[in-house]
Fold:
Amino acid sequence: MNLVMAMYVETRLVHLSGVDLAIIAIYFALVLAIGFYLKRFAQTGEDFFLAGREMTAWVAGLAFVSANLGSLELLGWAGNAYQYGIMAAHWYWVGAIPAMVFLGIVMMPFYYISKTHSVPGYLKLRYGSEASGLSAITFAVMTILMSGVNMYAMAVVMEVVLGWNLHFSIVVSSLTVGVYVAAGGLFSAIFNEVLQFFLIWFGALLIPILGMVETGGWSGMVARIHQNFPGQDFTHMWGPMNSFANNPMGIHWTGIVFGLGAVQAMGYWTTDFLVVQRVLSAKDVRSAKLAPIIGSFFKMAVPLIVILPGLLGRAVLPMHLVPGSEAQAGQFRYDDVLPLMLARYCGPGLLGLGITALVAGFMAGMAGNVSAFATVWTYDIYRPYLRKDAPDKHYVSMGRWCTIIGLIVSIGTAYLVMRFTSMMDYVQALFGFFIAPLFGTVLLGMLWKRVSRAAGFWGLFAGVLSSVGTFSLMKLDPDRWVRVFALSPIAKPLAQAMYQALWSCVTCVVVTVLVTLVTKPRPDEELVGLVYSLTPVAREEHASLLHKPVFWGVVALALFLILQIIFW
Amino acid sequence: MRSVSEKHHIIPVWFFVGVLLLVYGVLIFVSGLAEWSNPPNTVLAELHAPVWWGGLLVVLGGVYCLMFRPGKST
Structure:
């Protein structure tokens, strides 16, 4: 209690002891040592950009789920759980599990068999350079902007939580990431993501364990929440979504099922190259199919260390947290709930482990962004448009330089965001413009051989325009347009984003189908290995049940359904 | 040119995971023992979480280091 009171008058949330600092320093030393060690193995393009395509399903699966387990995610979703209750878990369950299983069972064979280096690379093979170029350039620009936004956000968190200087955080983290990714390429990024996975689990798992001990289990926690916040429902997922007005998120179940589950999650998990690149590093088709399914089991468990601490915050914290935009001096924001809970239960040593997990999450996120940027720039922009027939060594060298240049641009973006903070929201929104329509384009291309080259480009283009249009209209004149696009005048920004994704994907699909019907399809022989009906995918009839990815996919979906029923 | 077999001599990532968990486990376990009689000002400090959590990390880290140590055939 004294500690919590002390935090009211201090500018930082936690104080680190010598052992905490030693734990952080050891982490930095180890990732740099791993980077230098892996440099000797990253000599060819396939090694540097795809980790030699020799990762096991477990390594690729953990890296796949870890690439999305950054610290901003953890802090933000723990804050969302405090604000909205257990409904925030939709982003980990319906917003991830079906999409991951779909990627593994349906889409991964095409990405893998086509031997593409990237998602824009698949679009080039399937549709040609127009759709691929649009996707590659937007991905490269957005990735590097996002990297800068993350870098700035990390520096702010480190300043608020630890009292570290902003410039110090930016310089030390980017230098470290630059050195180890430029040295070992995707090998380094994946190794670091696996380390980060363990750090985050062991750094954060004590919070729900000790929180449950303190509150006397789930029912004790729910009773305390009802006592602290009477009349509000924070512990049911689907029940309060029968109308927009019945839940703090202001969303209807259709927005969650169709906007989040069917479009936004599918778009993110199956076409965002940052995550798909991890699975492309798998050693064979079976491992590539299994990796996202292995990832789905861990993803299902993440609410334990993210959502539950947010709910526990409602139950045990003596103060009420407030939205970031309304926080006054001495008040804590929703996003502070995870560090506050960490400081509540963790003393010297354990605190260092928790903070190292956050630092590792930030750095792994940055590494993921720059490694994906280096691949897309080198293989989908530089090679096709600037220098076609250079030796492999040249492209590896370009990849290493891209990593450094990408980080320098990210640092520039971080300082730009520092001066114009509102840019942050817009950059994050920009990233969302491309994901939902891209899913429509890739999926139609894989499943329907009739889709033509022109249809691929115009469908994607129309989907992006629709996304930008609905976003702009809802921002410029919310009173008029939110009720139109988000189906209710009280839909909150998260709910608006779900419907924006839904409409942009629908637009993409409709335009793609219409243009397909009036244009000439590509000959079948050009589409072998790219389209479902023309690709002999290994069926694994002779493998035992336990070795079939589809079996584990069904198990993952069954567990997912059970969780929905338990927390209905 | 690097032979394909050299690729297979990369130390498994699990070994690095083991080293990290082992070192962290030792540090946390020892700091937990050091503060046993004078626990930090945290909630449930009387449960001595650093001691058993550090011990768990040591055991897991040790097992990973042993199972995936360089040179061990898999």
Observations:
- The two ends of chain A are 35 Å apart (CA to CA).
- The interface with chain B takes residues 1-3, 19, 22-23, 26-27, 30, 34, 37-38, 41, 43-44, 47, 52, 54, 59, 187, 190-191, 194-195, 198-199, 202, 206, 210, 213-214, 316, 343-350, 352-353 of chain A (CB under 8 Å).
